[in-house]
Amino acid sequence: MDQPATHLSPSPLSLSINEDAQAIAEQRQAMLAAIVDTSDDAILSKTLDGVITSWNRSAEKMFGYTANEALGQHITMIIPADRLDEELYIIGKVKKGDKVDHFHTIRQCKNGKLVPISLTVSPMIDNNGNIIGASKIARDISEQQAAHEENARLFAEVKSLNEKKDEFIGLASHELKTPLTSINGYLQIISGMITDESAMLFLQKTRQQVKKLNALVSDLLDVSKIEAGKLQITKEDFDINQVLTDAIELISHGNKSHTIDLTMPAGKLIVTGDAHRIEQVIINLLTNAIRYSPGTNKIHVGLTSDADEVLICIKDYGMGIPQDKQQDIFTRFYRVNDENSTISGLGIGLFLSKEIIIQHGGRIWADSEPGKGSTFFISLPKLSRKTG
Ligand code: ADP
């Protein structure tokens, strides 16, 4: 009968295979040890009782204890007193075979210094499948933490400066309003006193400029009201056809460079909202259409409606707006090509317009092609859904 294979003495061939396997295992072991030793992360292991069983070079650098000092010590030597319960939590997870991933915490170095770390803890399992301890990888996140704190500080600083700026704009525009109103009043009195034609002409020009200044200050005041959530919208039923006709008449009166044609259904078209604010938006869009289309002479305005909403469009044939800027133009103080623009402005008209339209539960947007012109659209619900 043949001898069972297990009783055969090892052949020279199997001996050499075993030696090769052992050499490979040793090589792999050495490689792993080198990786652990050269890692920038602190890598250490501990028993389930918390006794440290391995401690790489980065752990020495990070926590200040040499491997000799750390091995055999309890892991709590690097855990700050107020974080000791973290160890119970971590060990609890490890005992269940769970991993703790990228846990941000703080550990204490030999010299007492606290170091913020990102910690990953995995259970260590022996050949029989028993959990015998935990391996820990700790990454020093002092730099990220410092950058994060610096960002938060800068954010708070910018926020506070922004609030101060808003406060200043609010105060300044409020203060400017009073003398402007007085100037207007005095100019009116003077206009009744002078008869000289050229003096009258200059007076008219002065009143026009004061009017412009007044509009600018009012816009600034509105911006600060929006920031404070205090923009007043008074809603009532009004005829949008009438508001549109009045606005076009007003703008046409002061601008002879462009003719504005209007297409709209006959009769009244009643919507609920703030007629004065809607007129402000239309005037702003018409003024822009004229200002940003030098060298052309036509503006088209259209009004259509269905059962629920009205749609107003204001079309010019001017310089247009690049596609990637068409969203930005509705943000506060944003101007396309501000540095190169010969057309002055503060970049608040469209911001105000958008806020007003949103408060009516409507939408405002632009469709434009550079060099060909822009069309601005306003859609307004006939029955305003949002309360102002
Ligand atoms: P302002 O005109 O005072 O700068 P607005 O908020 O009214 O401020 O407009 C923001 C920017 O949008 C303008 O600076 C301009 O670059 C662009 N813009 C607005 N309307 C038009 C238009 N009809 N055609 C081309 N560009 C426009």
UniProtKB/TrEMBL annotation:
It is an enzyme of class 2 (transferase). Keywords: Phosphoprotein. Its EC number is 2.7.13.3. InterPro entries: HATPase_C_sf, HATPase_dom, His_kinase_dom, HisK_dim/P_dom, HisK_dim/P_sf, PAS, PAS-assoc_C, PAS-like_dom_sf. Residues 28-83 form the PAS domain. Residues 99-153 form the PAC domain. The keyword Iron does not apply. Residues 171-384 form the Histidine kinase domain. It comes from the Bacteria. CDD domains: HATPase (cd00075), HisKA (cd00082), PAS (cd00130). It catalyses: ATP + protein L-histidine = ADP + protein N-phospho-L-histidine. This is histidine kinase. It comes from Mucilaginibacter boryungensis. The lineage of its organism: Bacteria, Pseudomonadati, Bacteroidota, Sphingobacteriia, Sphingobacteriales.
